[in-house]
Amino acid sequence: MTPARASRHAGPEYLAGGTIAPPMKYGFQVLTYGSPWVEVLATARRLEVLGYDYLFGHDHLYSTGGDPYQGFFEGWTTLAAWAQATTRISLGLTVGNNTFRNPGVVAKMATTVDHISNGRSIFGLGAGNVELEAVAHGLPWAPTGVRLDWLEEALTIIRGILAGETVSQDGPTYRFQGVHHAPLPQRRPLPILIGAQGEQKGLRVAARFADIWQIFVPVDGLDFWRRKDEVFRVHCAALDRDPSEVERMVGCKLIIRSNPGEARKAFEHLRAVHKWNESVWDVTWAASPEQVAEALIGFRALGVQSFLPQLAWPFDQETIDRLIGDVAPLVDQATASV
Prior knowledge:
Blueprint: E1 13-14, E2 20-21, E3 25-31, H1 37-49, E4 54-57, H2 75-85, E5 90-93, E6 96-97, H3 103-116, E7 123-126, H4 131-136, H5 144-162, E8 167-170, E9 175-179, E10 192-195, H6 202-209, E11 212-216, H7 222-238, E12 247-251, E13 253-256, H8 260-274, E14 284-287, H9 289-301, E15 306-307, E16 310-312, H10 317-336
Parallel strand pairs: 3-4, 3-15, 3-16, 4-5, 6-7, 7-10, 10-11, 11-12, 12-15, 13-14
Antiparallel strand pairs: 1-2, 8-9
Helix pairs in contact: 2-3, 3-5, 6-7, 9-10
């Protein structure tokens, strides 16, 4: 078994000149599509044992990106089970779906998971992105801009409740009358994760609310990232917010092998299992440890602080082991030698 990485958190690393450079953070968004529960739970525990920082799930009613009718598990109840089964790793959803639930209910759920985890939770929320699942279940749906308006209103309500405020709200979407919750989360303020790349509204919502901003990027996507980060900073300036307060997190689909050709072959197998179309390659890193490290070193130089790739079933044990065992030390070494 690959050694646990806990020792990397024992103290700060230093760049030349004495500048503190905290280690890059690593985790996985574990996609449960097609997986039996025993493997979902075992993978969560393994990520903790190996020293990963983050364990995130998904929040859908139909499977995404391929066959919508695959079996899988609901997001918040999966998160509660992971919180009970682990002791150290930070956990959340990338991201919760705002169209599924009333914001007050979500605030109560988030607090409950935070207590189950003893203060290790991160609160992720998004506008929702799959029309089929919403319409099929009789849930509200609207164009992206409208859903982002719903999200912004919901986040205002939820943040107030989680801070211990008494919240009243009279629309345009939600009605609340003197809502006050107890207990409050153990972790206060409860970190908010927003996944966004839309330049007009999505990144504005992230600039206003996010403690962690998450985005999917291609392996050669430094220019793409640079553009999105520039727009994010403009929104922060308009809101009089310091952008350095927000953790930058990038994600992708990831397969690691010594031979990049073997990595591509392994990913093609996953693509067939889940019936993903070829466009998924746009955010897929099928590469060697050295290639993944080189990409991450480039992103880190532009301010990225954490890496959260997706892990689809069948959960690839070699990728799990090699990201933390091979890639992370290469990235750390490059940082230390700057």
